[in-house]
Design a protein that fits this description.
Layout lengths: L3 H8 L3 E2 L5 H5 L14 E9 L3 E8 L6 E5 L4 E7 L2 E2 L13 E10 L2 E8 L3 E9 L7 E9 L2 H13 L21 E6 L16 H19 L3 E4 L9 H10 L4 E8 L11 E6 L6 H10 L2 H4 L8 H11 L2 H18 L5 E9 L11 E8 L3 H7 L2 H25 L8
Parallel strand pairs: 2-6, 11-12, 11-13, 13-16, 14-15
Antiparallel strand pairs: 1-4, 2-3, 3-10, 4-5, 5-8, 7-8, 9-10, 14-16
Bound molecules: zinc ion.
Zinc ion binds next to loops.
């Protein structure tokens, strides 16, 4: 359900281009979502051509169906396909060629993979097809792009997306409250699936680091028994930012904790330590503003079309934010700084604020923790150390306990002072 937006983008205005299904051609059944090793493997990718015409070729272990569509602001071509195991060489997609600036790939929902291609300038998809394997050659996915101008790009975009409006069906909740009066804590591991987040020079990815940390934190909070704990994702799946917020709001969460790991580019210098962020319209400093901008790009990275929603989200949600929620968010962030510093190294300015999309629930106190910098050697060592994670997760549990103590005291549970 968290992938609602992804699914609607998946279903929306998608152009199917001359691809015969594997089943049609070979009579072989395509497994829908079986064991991991049932998935077709994409083993290599190559770019060819120039600024006028560019092609992208992917080697596949067997034939699959692909569908493509385009997105503007920024110009992108999205290719959706059944779930594929990507085994591309490292760093592939970071550099482009011709019309292709860069590309990303990964899981966008269970059973569905995606490649998102950032265009250097407007381009049109001439062809997208998958060739049968021949002799010792693997099956090949071929995408042909030709340069075009903005006007033509926007015109074909309007044709693609003209028919169905991107709907937001309200999916029913599986369990609402279920008579359990314990406060609900939502843990939100950042990124996932096609969106890797930041990456260390040695290859460790933010999405994996924060998921492992979040699972540990969940188990620790669960064990106490005083809270209900849910996660916006508990595996390597992409979840849109708005769906993360909605997940917490729909369940009336009492606290939302988003977990991330930051990185600086070499020219930005070096920094280390954990930082806790709360929401503010105006960022506490320029670096916090840039970070929020980067974190807010998750949906663009995954190839979602935000052109229809951006305005509403930015303006109205913030206006609606209740003073009380904001006060609680800051209070929790301060408490967390207090407990974190006993366990982990803190950034020199550990409490900051900026306009993070994922913190915009007007009725759920929300914080975003950057556990450290994957670009810093000492931080990275901590982030992947079991001992550091254990200690740091414990310190967040202490902050949660301190935050809820006055509230739970009033509801007949164990009392405490504050
Ligand atoms: Zn992040």
């Amino acid at each position: 359900m968290f992938v609602r937006a992804a699914i609607s983008a998946f279903l929306l205005g998608v152009t199917v281009l001359g691809v015969a299904s594997a089943a049609e051609r070979t009579g072989e059944a395509v497994p829908p979502t079986g064991a991991a090793d049932d998935f077709p493997v994409a083993s290599d990718v190559r770019l060819g051509g120039d600024d006028a015409q560019t092609r992208l070729i992917v080697d596949l272990s067997r034939k699959i169906d692909v569908r493509t569509f385009t997105l503007a602001n920024p110009y992108r071509v999205v290719m959706d396909m059944p779930q594929v195991t990507f085994q591309f060489p490292p760093k592939v997609g970071e550099a482009g060629r011709g019309l292709i600036k860069a590309f990303r790939f990964g899981l966008v929902m269970q059973g569905g993979s995606r490649m998102v291609i950032d265009l250097a300038r407007p381009a049109q998809v001439d062809m997208a097809f998958v060739l049968d394997p021949i002799h010792d050659q693997p099956s090949r996915l071929v995408l042909h792009l030709t340069a075009t101008d903005r006007e033509s790009f926007m015109r074909s975009l309007a044709l693609e997306t003209g028919a169905p409006q991107r709907g937001k069906p309200e999916a029913p909740l599986e369990t609402k409250g279920s008579g359990d009066s314990r406060p609900l804590i939502v843990i939100d591991p950042g990124h996932g699936g096609i969106d890797n987040g930041t990456r260390a020079a040695s290859g460790e990815m933010e999405k994996t680091i924060v998921l492992q940390f979040s699972l540990l934190l969940r188990d620790k909070l669960d064990k106490i028994g005083k809270y209900r704990v849910l996660m916006t994702r508990s595996d390597d799946t992409f979840v849109a930012l708005g769906d993360r917020v909605q997940f917490a709001r729909a369940r009336q969460a009492a606290l939302f904790i988003s977990i991330h790991a930051d990185a600086l580019r070499r020219r930005e210098g070096d920094a280390q330590g954990a930082t806790v962020y709360t929401l503010s319209e105006r960022a506490s400093d320029a670096r916090a503003a840039r970070l929020a901008e980067a974190e807010n790009k998750a949906d663009v990275i995954a190839g979602l079309d935000l052109s229809a929603e951006e305005k509403d989200v930015a303006g109205i949600l913030f206006d609606l934010a209740r003073r009380e929620t904001k006060t609680f968010s800051v209070q929790f962030a301060q408490t967390m700084i207090g407990t974190l510093k006993t366990a982990a190294r803190l950034h020199q300015h550990p409490l900051k604020s900026a306009s993070f999309a994922v913190l915009k629930a007007p009725d759920v106190p929300s914080v975003l923790v950057e556990l450290g910098y994957v670009s810093n050697k000492a931080d990275l060592k901590s982030l992947i150390s079991t001992e550091w994670r254990d200690r740091t997760a414990d310190s967040i549990v202490q902050a949660v306990d301190a935050f809820f103590r006055p509230r739970l005291a009033g509801s007949g549970q164990r009392s405490g002072q504050n």
